[in-house]
Design goal:
The complex is a heterodimer. Chain A is α+β, with helices and mostly antiparallel strands. Chain A has 4 helices and 2 strands, in the order αααββα. In chain A, α1 (9-21) crosses α2 and α1 (9-21) crosses α4 (83-100). Chain B is built from 7 helices and no strands. By secondary structure, chain B is mostly helical. The longest helix of chain B is centred in the last third of the chain and has 33 residues, at 128-160. Chain A binds chain B through residues 26-28, 31, 43-46, 48-49, 52, 64, 67-68, 70-77, and chain B through 1, 5, 9, 18-28, 30-31, 40-41, 44-49, 52.
């Protein structure tokens, strides 16, 4: 069987948030998007550690943007998903769907 | 910029953490997030950043421990050879009291460990503080392993009889001084972001 890169749960959340935000994805909106969609609080430090890891794996790339006074003159770091990252998200989705199928305990939506 | 934000920025700068992350936190604070939220985020960012640095530079971490031990060996040799100051922490030998001799010993521990911390920081410029922390953790583990039974005995005694709490604090005094010296030296020796090598 071919060895595939697979995303962890939080890595997948971050990747999906980056994809959803398009070219507007930097730390603040990425963290807010995850909070809005999942309802759970996220730490910016954890988001950045995950983004650094995803960048090392070649799933996202980053570029420095503009600095504003409200940021203490510090530049924004924009993240964008790469073609490899997009393929890995699709593969992770397929793997999850395959695992999901045929489980009677998860049918119907009533716990 | 308020002083608490300036402190946070200084911490990020000294630890060499991502400036964009510092900017994001400042932006959120300006947009109305509470001070508790802000400092909680800073704390998590520091722990995650330092831990990530250590994981990414295991060999450097090993080198930091070797260099720290080498410098401390020199101090130990000089202490044994030329100084005859005592700092006994054994309760049956001394009462916990600040004598001239114990103060001199603590000052020397602080000074020598500051030099050790500075040396570790200067020899690991790109990951200065994380590497000083690695050595501090190593020293803490060494201390705990070496004094496990004594600490356990003092803890039990302190629970039974409050008068032993002073002895327990006294027992930890040189160790805390050592760690304080290391961190102080490390912070002084750590280059700011503008001085750091570009290849981090």
């Amino acid at each position: 069987m071919k060895d595939r890169a697979c995303l962890g749960e939080f890595e997948l959340l971050v990747m999906l948030a980056v994809i959803r935000l398009g070219d507007q994805g930097y730390g603040v909106p990425i963290a807010r998007e995850i909070e809005r969609q999942t309802g759970r609080q996220v730490a910016f430090g954890t988001v950045y550690a995950t983004l650094d890891r995803l960048q090392d794996k070649g799933f996202v790339r980053s570029s420095l943007g503009d600095a504003t006074p409200q940021r203490g003159g510090r530049a924004k770091r924009y993240f964008a998903v790469t073609a490899t990252g997009l393929r890995t998200v699709r593969e992770t989705k397929q793997s999850l769907i395959r695992l999901w199928q045929g489980l009677p305990e998860l049918e119907g939506g009533v716990a | 910029m308020t002083s608490s934000r300036a402190i946070a920025v200084w911490i990020f700068d000294r630890l060499g953490l991502d400036v964009a992350l510092a900017g994001d936190l400042l932006e959120e604070r300006t947009n109305g997030r509470s001070a508790i939220w802000f400092w909680r985020q800073v704390w998590i960012a520091v722990v995650a950043g330092v831990w990530s640095d250590i994981l990414h530079h295991k060999l450097l971490a090993l080198r930091a421990v070797v260099i720290g031990c080498a410098v401390n060996s020199v101090w130990l040799f000089l202490w044994v050879r030329f100084l005859h100051l005592g700092f006994s922490t054994r309760p049956e030998l001394t009462r916990p009291e600040l004598s001239i001799e114990s103060l001199a010993s603590l000052s020397l521990i602080l000074l020598t460990q500051a030099v050790t911390g500075w040396t570790v920081a200067r020899t690991h410029r790109a990951q200065a503080i994380p590497m000083v922390l690695v050595f501090a953790i190593w020293l803490a583990m060494w201390f705990l392993a070496d004094s496990f039974s004594e600490i356990g005995r003092l803890l039990m005694d302190s629970l039974d009889q409050p008068r032993f709490r002073a002895y327990l604090a006294w027992y930890f005094m040189p160790f805390f001084t050592e760690i304080a010296g290391l961190l102080t030296g490390g912070i002084i020796g750590a280059p700011g972001r503008s001085e750091q090598p570009a290849d981090r």
